[in-house]
Specification:
Blueprint lengths: L2 H10 L4 H12 L2 H6 L13 H27 L3 E4 L7 H4 L7 E6 L8 E5 L6 H16 L5 E4 L5 H11 L4 E4 L13 H9 L3 E4 L11 H12 L2 E4 L7 H11 L3 E4 L10 H8 L4 E2 L3 H8 L12 E2 L4 H11 L4 E2 H8 L3 H13 L3 E4 L3 E4 L3 E2 L1
Parallel strand pairs: 3-4, 3-7, 4-5, 5-6, 7-8, 8-9, 10-14
Antiparallel strand pairs: 1-2, 2-6, 11-13, 12-13
Helix pairs in contact: 1-4, 6-7, 9-10, 14-15
């Protein structure tokens, strides 16, 4: 019996869970012992009562048989596996007490990428949420920050995040709440294939044949939160899976960010509440995220010289910036005889184009090596 058989079988026991599975291996001294030790060996293991001991003893042969079928499926479909005791297991996820025992990935995404961000939100995304998601990822790309984007491959914000990552040449992982013998939603099959082909992947801790059930998604959400350096909630109603993911990320002591919205907007209620309760930091752009995460010093622009087309008003703003190290929106408004609202709009556009960088206090500075 191979080590992989034992690893998969350990994850399959009903009612045991990831925490107790780890505890079994730790107290018995080896993975093999879980399937070979006599019943008395389990008596003094914390959290493993008589009912669980009975399940283990009655089910371990059956679990090994199911694991054997899963190994055949894995090899046939070229699926990567990551066991919690192996070096390849995601280092961020390994820090979480309730992390899965084993992960299955279709694709070759680097689960230990230098920077990983999880982006989540409502399935009923508004145009506002879609734009925020796209501009966030575009803004990271323009400033040279290389990231791996993680989301749940669902409709709405998840799908937008995956597509924006692909558009900006970032690898992206979809974490699903079922086995890799299927894909939910099925409408995202072509998107999943694009993600895999572009160096990303589809990830789960469920074996093949697992039923698609609403109860699977909180388990899926803990992987989304645990894989990443931070979780960003773009849009969410007062309740929903995105808020569950944010709560899990907070429990893991990971950074959580949220985009604010109008108090009257249904799908900004969850984000606004996270911010109000200090459970998420408010961000409005990629620049905010970069500053909070301290990534700026490590940024390596994708192009040392960017050739950028600007309209006449944008060029006027750049000319002012070229003559001063830092300017404010009020200064630019007076200098160009344009409203503050117009200047703010121009500054936002220039920031997304990678021409300037926003600073606290409505201040801006020109990014060097930018040519028009």
């Amino acid at each position: 019996m191979s080590a992989l058989n034992y690893q998969i079988a350990l994850s399959m026991f009903p009612r045991i869970g990831a925490v107790n599975a780890r505890r079994l291996v730790a107290y018995l001294g080896s993975l093999d012992a879980v399937f070979e030790a006599p019943g008395k060996a389990f008596k003094d293991i914390p959290g493993i009562g008589n009912n669980l001991i009975k399940i283990i003893l009655e089910k371990r042969t059956e679990m090994l048989e199911e694991a054997l079928r899963e190994v055949e499926f894995i090899r046939k479909h070229k699926i990567e596996t990551y066991f919690y005791l192996n070096k390849a297991f995601p280092k961020r996820l390994a820090q979480c007490d309730d992390a899965p025992v084993i992960l299955f990935q279709k694709g070759n995404a680097d689960l230990n990428h230098q920077r990983i961000v999880s982006i989540v939100g409502t399935r009923s995304a508004t145009e506002y949420g879609r734009e925020l998601t796209g501009e966030l990822i575009k803004g990271l790309a323009l400033t040279g920050i290389e990231v791996l984007v993680v989301s749940g491959l669902a409709f709405g914000i998840d799908g937008v995040a995956h597509k924006a990552a692909l558009k900006n040449k970032f690898p992206t992982i979809g974490v699903v709440g079922h086995g890799l013998d299927k894909l939910y939603p099925s409408a995202h099959k072509s998107l999943a294939r694009e993600m895999i082909d572009a160096g990303g992947g589809i990830l789960t801790d469920f074996p093949s044949g697992s039923k698609i059930d609403p109860g699977n998604f909180p388990r899926r959400n803990r992987i989304i939160a645990g894989l990443a350096d931070c979780t960003i909630v773009v849009e969410s109603a007062g309740k929903g899976g995105a808020l569950v993911t944010a709560d899990i990320a907070n429990s893991y002591n990971r950074d959580v960010f949220a985009f604010p919205g109008k108090v009257s907007d249904q799908y900004s209620a969850g984000c606004n509440n996270l911010i109000k309760k200090n459970e998420a930091a408010l961000i409005t752009s990629a620049a905010d995220l970069i500053a909070y995460m301290g990534w700026e010093a490590n940024a390596k622009p994708r192009q040392q010289v960017m050739m950028i087309d600007l309209d006449d008003e944008e060029k006027q703003v750049v000319e002012i910036l070229s003559g001063s190290e830092i300017i404010t929106t009020d200064f630019a408004s007076r200098k160009l005889n344009l409203s503050v609202q117009k200047i703010n709009s121009l500054m936002l556009t220039l920031e997304f184009k990678g021409v300037l960088k926003s600073l606290p206090g409505n201040r801006f500075k020109l990014i060097s090596n930018t040519h028009m």
